[in-house]
Write a structure and sequence with these properties.
There is one protein chain. The longest helix is centred in the C-terminal third of the chain and has 25 residues, at 552-576. A hairpin with a 2-residue loop joins β8 (184-185) and β9. The chain folds into 3 domains: 4-34 and 200-488, Glycosidases (TIM Barrel, Alpha-Beta Barrel); 61-196, Chitobiase/beta-hexosaminidase domain 2-like (Chitobiase, domain 2), CATH 3.30.379.10; 534-664, Methane Monooxygenase Hydroxylase, Chain G, domain 1 (Up-down Bundle). Helix content is 41%, strand content 13%. It starts with a helix and ends in a 5-residue tail after the last helix. α3 (85-97) runs parallel beside α5 (170-183). By secondary structure, the chain is of the alpha/beta class. It has 21 helices and 18 strands.
């Protein structure tokens, strides 16, 4: 969805500048998302003990209420209603990683006669026997769990050592299992009690970029990852899939249809809603009977593959001097903002009535408007506000195509100006636009108000062409969307790095060094909204200050340590990151980092030589540094792997600037 050229020219200059006539301003039409119902709280008092494990996303409530439970060799897992086989599998694998040799899974209603030293019970909080166990545990106050919420408590129950994992619904049980997997480890289960639920009902990722789409295997991997970090939505919207956009009328060929069906099943198993985004706007005749039939036929085809969630997208369509169909001209007259909105609204409402309402399991449609990236009211928005079915949710990218920040006031204004439930299509970390050429966008999700969920119904991040590398932003975005008030970008960033390294501390440190070199996040037109290499900049600035203050030996020693960290990072990442896709995607950046580290090493040597009065040798080392830096600057992105192509950027504006400026340090 990155195409401001198209956005700003759609239907003339009125797109971003037109206002409402007096009395037409939005207000009461806008609807805020209801606040989360008051959930139960932890009733048990906190007890002293070592720090609890880090859980991502951060739970709404978690405290230590008892000692850690030892994990014995033999463990019972009892499954009540709501616990599907994948939940039991997640719990079983976590127990085995923590040291259990034999995990016996049984239905809760037929518990074994000879119980084992530890029992884990998981299921719906309202289902027997879970409801009675929760009451007897006295771990929680009364109150309804919000959708997708869950409760966990560990300790003694009826004289037996037990852990209860209770969900408000099937999704909640699944998320309780995911949290349990983070509380279990090293032959212990943390003595924690948890009450948790999401702040936003929709939390996801939209594969909505231009350029090479993800492969089928990348999507399968991503969907499993989404479930593990409690993202509940995947929107299929790759701009370069011809059957999604240019050939929207045509059914998929057999192989691709089988893959879509497999993705839908895989998503359901991981408690992720597979949402297909169909983009007919470039060629549809809105009032053409044949095109309307083709549209509902395509949706029925997808429904038969197992897809139950749909969006209609009219973003990035070329401005039309005339309609695609004579029937549109007859019905709507000359093309205008109001006419385009009326046509899109009529079509969407018809699809809602004649397709979504008539197919079991299909939720209300989602809608991607043509004017998706601002807050100004317009005849287009005014028409949609009045005419679009109230059940339809509207996607919005923020106050710009790539917003530098999103405030509470902006979110409130978006809800008002659209008059519908609004969802945030966040174009981060997508790198399919010119200012992102040569970059991996690996900073944490940031600059979004913690009050977003009070006004919007959810958010989806638009990722990079590089699927595995996108997991850094996706992980931190999931952390934010679940509990924005507890979200700490730097902490979440470190947790994301640890996730990709399997918790190996040495590899995590190396990965963070690399992530820092890819921290810059460009905006659409102004200065970057995330700064370049902040950690490296702070260290190089300290080196320069020490040198200018006359502490040259200290400066050289500190610079040498930084050189070593940069030089060692690529090898440790290649050996230790558990996601092989990340290493493959990052190859040109890791290669470039190796060369930049060599250039910095020459610079360090030059400063050391200069500090000891060997000016001639220092000059040679400075020259060598410049030569290697030119080699590093010439490395390009992998052909066909990203759009647009470009030269690789490594801490640009920081590392290159220091190497260029170092010869002037005297």
């Amino acid at each position: 969805m990155i195409s401001r050229r198209i956005v700003t020219t759609f239907l003339g200059a009125g797109l971003l500048l037109s206002g409402c006539a007096p009395g037409d301003a939005p207000g009461s039409a806008g609807r805020s998302v209801p606040r989360t119902p008051k959930a139960p709280s932890i009733a048990l008092e906190a007890v002293a003990g070592k720090a609890l494990p880090t859980v991502s996303p951060t739970p709404q409530q978690m405290r230590r209420t008892g000692p850690d439970l030892p994990v014995p060799r033999l463990v019972d897992v009892l499954t009540a209603e709501g616990a599907d086989p994948r939940c039991a599998d997640i719990v079983g694998r976590a127990l085995r990683r923590a040291g259990a040799a034999d995990v016996r899974v049984s239905p809760a209603g037929s518990a074994p006669r000879s119980p084992r030293p530890l029992t884990v019970v998981l299921g719906n909080a309202a289902a027997p026997p879970m409801a009675g166990m929760l009451q007897r545990s006295r771990a929680f106050t009364a109150g309804p769990l919000p959708p997708e919420g869950y409760q966990i408590t560990a300790g003694s129950l009826g004289g037996r050592t037990a852990v209860l994992l209770a969900g408000a619904d099937d999704d909640g049980v699944f998320y309780a299992a995911q949290t349990f997997a983070q509380l279990a480890g090293d032959r212990r289960i943390a003595g924690a009690t948890v009450v948790d639920h999401p702040a936003m009902p929709l939390r996801g990722v939209v594969e909505g970029f231009y350029g090479k789409p993800w492969t089928h295997q990348e999507r399968m991997d991503q969907i499993a990852f989404f479930g593990s970090v409690k993202l509940n939505t995947y929107l299929y919207a790759p701009k370069d899939d011809p059957y999604e956009r240019d050939r929207w009328r045509d059914p998929y060929p057999a192989r691709q249809a089988r893959e879509l069906a497999e993705l839908a099943r895989h998503a359901a198993a991981h408690h992720v809603r597979f949402t297909y985004v169909l983009s007919p706007g470039k060629s549809i005749g809105y009032n053409d009977a044949g095109d309307r039939k083709a549209l509902t036929g395509k949706l029925r085809f997808l429904y038969d593959l197992g897809i139950k969630d749909f969006a209609l997208a009219f973003d990035d369509v070329h401005p039309l001097p005339v309609w695609n169909s004579a029937a549109d001209l007859a019905r709507y007259g000359t093309v205008s903002e109001q006419a385009a909105a009326a046509a899109q609204s009529d079509l969407t409402n018809r699809v809602q009535r004649e397709f979504a309402d008539r197919h079991p399991g299909v939720r209300p449609l989602q809608f991607v408007p043509t004017q998706y990236s601002d807050l100004a009211d317009s005849p287009y928005k005014k028409t949609l506000r009045r005419t679009l079915d109230s059940r339809v949710k509207v996607w919005w990218t923020g106050a710009d195509v790539v917003p530098t920040s999103i405030t509470s006031g902006q979110a409130r204004r978006a809800a008002d100006v659209w008059g519908h439930d609004v969802l945030l299509w966040d174009n981060y970390p997508t790198n399919d636009y010119d200012r992102a050429a040569g970059r991996l966008l690996l900073a944490p999700y940031d600059k979004r108000t913690p009050e977003l969920g009070e006004h919007l119904g959810g958010l989806a991040l638009n990722p990079m062409n590089q699927a595995s590398a996108s997991k850094i932003a996706e992980f931190t975005g999931a952390d934010y969307a679940w509990n924005p008030r507890a979200y700490r970008p730097a902490d979440s960033w470190r947790a994301a790095a640890a996730y990709l390294t399997g918790g190996n501390q040495q590899t995590t440190r190396a990965l963070l060094v690399f992530l820092d070199t890819q921290h810059l996040a460009p905006s659409w037109s102004d200065a970057p909204w995330q700064p370049p290499a902040p950690a490296l900049k702070a260290r190089l600035d300290a080196v320069e200050r020490s040198w200018r203050a006359g502490r040259k030996d200290r400066a050289v020693a500190a610079l040498r340590a930084q050189v070593d960290a940069l030089a060692q990072a690529p090898g440790r990442i290649r050996q230790g990151v558990t996601d092989p896709g990340f290493v493959t995607e990052a190859k040109p950046w890791l290669d470039a980092l190796t060369l930049w580290a060599q250039a910095l090493r020459h610079t360090c040597k030059a400063l050391e030589l200069r500090s000891s009065g060997r000016s001639t040798q220092a000059t040679r080392s400075f020259t060598a540094a410049a030569d290697v830096a030119r080699q590093a600057s010439a490395i390009r992105t992998l052909p066909g792997a990203t759009r647009p192509q470009g030269t690789i950027k490594i801490a640009d504006g920081v590392l290159d600037t220091f190497i260029q400026r170092a010869p002037q340090l005297t």
